[in-house]
Automatic annotation (TrEMBL):
This is Threonine synthase. Residues 94-398 form the Tryptophan synthase beta chain-like PALP domain. GO terms for biological process: isoleucine biosynthetic process; L-serine catabolic process; L-threonine catabolic process; threonine biosynthetic process. It comes from Actinospica acidiphila. The modification N6-(pyridoxal phosphate)lysine is found at residue 129. Keywords: Lyase, Pyridoxal phosphate. Its EC number is 4.2.3.1.
Amino acid sequence: MAVQTFASTTDSANTVDLGPAAALSCRECGHRVPLGPVFACEECFGPLEIAYDFSGYDTEELRKRIEAGPANIWRYAPLLPVPADVATKPNLNPGWTKLVQADNLARELGVTGGLYVKDDSGNPTHSFKDRVVAQALEAARAFGFTTLSCSSTGNLAGAVGAAAARAGFRSCVFIPHDLEQGKIVMAAVYGGELVGIEGNYDDVNRFCSELIGDPAGEGWGFVNVNLRPYYAEGSKTLAYEVCEQLGWRLPDQIVVPIASGSQLTKIDKGLQELIKLGLVEDKPYKIFGAQAAGCSPVSTAYKAGHDVVRPQKPDTIAKSLAIGNPADGPYVLDIARRTGGAVEDVTDAQVVEAIKLLARTEGIFAETAGGVTVGVTKKLIEDGVLDPSLTTVVLNTGDGLKTLDAVAGTGLTATIRPSLESFREAGLV
Ligand SMILES: *Cc1c(COP(=O)(O)O)cnc(C)c1O
């Protein structure tokens, strides 16, 4: 990654108050710098992440404050890098999505220890991306940016467009030109600029890195590039919500989709914070990563026992997860191995089968990414890797209406004339 020390748009940007966030800290060498719109360590080029000072918190007071908070991610504001007065600013207020007790799916898969689907299709733009964008938006505001941008596999583009519309920002987002129609419409409808790039996501991302270094991109907040440390923290709220919804308890096993790997690493960070703060009892948990076989750089490295992730050229219907060169891949490998989890992949046919399985058992219509997590869960149980006697949470991170093509063969049971005779002839009674 190239070093980018992004010039602040205001002189005071580096001393801005971002709530309980204390500094940016390098994940590789631990070097600390003041909070600002930077994402790479000036010492070793490693990725920067938010470091907190939680020392003043009383566990029971914090629990009460969270429980009395709003039914969205801001109930966890004391644990997030946001300005204290966020509640008064226009934001889409995502989160606090349903944790569905999936007893029918559990029976089908032979899970006896409790199976839950965390259904993030219930967010404002119908994917988990609203969580991360909400954080990046507040950081953009604090740093004085007025244009929000991103490189996206589809869902992020929609989440940025919507958040920018509500907050009064300009938006200009970049996607691979050949995405699903549902994703393109969902990104374009909010009125921002949507640019299709002739290439895959990794080409789009490379283009955005160039744009950041160019005067053309000056003053732009790229939510997943120069605002990435703040953006990434949004994924912690998934971990917080799952634990709070389980009655302030850690799940034993959690199955998470992998695109860049950011979400998975921050779910681990969120669980670790809850343990440190005393909000949940400390016990072992396993994190499992899920990919599509047609874009499986992390599961390939996991199975080969490698520490480095070799880039792949994506070819899968799970386009929202189609990142061939995932930035957080090595950290995902660490977490899967440290927690006793695993990383697995499923074919496109298994993704489709899993979408239908979840829909038919629980009434949840997932996008292809949800097919990936449910499909991987099934495979890991069949292979004896995931323990069916333990409490298991599977993430569904997006809505099936965005990827209708994946289930294109699904349709009418019969076409009849409007008469009882014709209905009887159809053989349904
Ligand atoms: C972006 C995305 C993810 C996860 O992305 P990471 O880059 O790994 O954080 C998961 N599911 C859906 C539907 C997404 O759009």
